[in-house]
Amino acid sequence: VVVVMVVWGWKISFCGMLVLVLVEALLMMLLMVLRGRWLLEILMVMMVVVVVVVVVVVVLVVLVVLMVVLVLARRLRLCLRLVVVVVVVVVVVVVFLLSLLLLLLPLCCCSHCCCC
Q1: What is the DSSP string of 71-94?
Q2: 61: Cβ–Cβ under 8 A, 6 or more apart, which residues?
Q3: How many CB atoms lie under 10 A from the CB of residue 111?
Q4: Is the pLDDT of residue 83 over 60?
Q5: 85 near 27, Cβ under 8 Å?
Q6: With the C-alpha atoms ordered 95, 23, 45, 38, is the resulting torsion angle positive or negative?
Q7: pLDDT score for 49
Q8: What b/e string do you get for 88-102 counting C-beta neighbours within 10 Å, with b at 16 or more?
Q9: What's the N-to-C CA distance of the chain in angstroms?
Q10: CA 106 from chain center: how many Å?
Q11: Which of 53, 73, 93, 111 sits CB 3.0–4.6 Å from 78 for a disulfide?
Q12: What are the two backbone dihedrals, phi and then psi, of residue 25, each rounded to the nearest 5 degrees?
């Protein structure tokens, strides 16, 4: 059941991110063609939506992984404190790298687009 939930959640999050990236790419092409100021605002709103979706997906994946790890730790009789510390450290590193990526993403987009 847990494996099915993880695979199902991964497919939904992957498809959702793919759709958001495609919509954002379409808006970027429209922005380059029309060079409208309102399209830039729509693009910024879409970037905020992408950030929110990424954060929600990361939180959900972390919760599912934490549940799976705790279940496996109990079955294998591992030290739960050590397992929780390792999972928390991995989550903090992943969130830090993701936030760094999301901070650098607008800089990369604006360097290619002359309207920024």
Answers
A1: HHHHHHT--HHHHHHHHHHHHHHH
A2: 9, 10, 13
A3: 9
A4: yes
A5: no
A6: positive
A7: 73
A8: eeebeeeeeeeeeee
A9: 48
A10: 15
A11: 73
A12: -65, -40
- Distance, in Å, from the CA atom of 87 to the CA atom of 28, rounded to the nearest integer, reads 37
Is 43 exposed, middle or buried (CB count within 10 Å of its CB: 0-12, 13-18, 19+)? buried
The residue among 39, 38, 15, 7 whose CA lies nearest residue 26 is: 39
Amino acid at 33: V
Work out the angle between the directed axes of helices 2-34 and 37-76 (0-180°, nearest 10).
Answer: 160
Residue 48 gets which letter from DSSP?
A: H
Who has greater pLDDT, 19 or 110?
A: 19
- Write out the two tokens for 18: 């793919």
The whole-angstrom separation of Cα 111 and Cα 34 is 18
Q: Residue 116 carries which side chain, given as an amino acid letter?
A: C
**Overall average pLDDT of the 54-74 stretch:** 76
Q: CA 21, 24, 27 angle in degrees (round to 5)?
A: 155
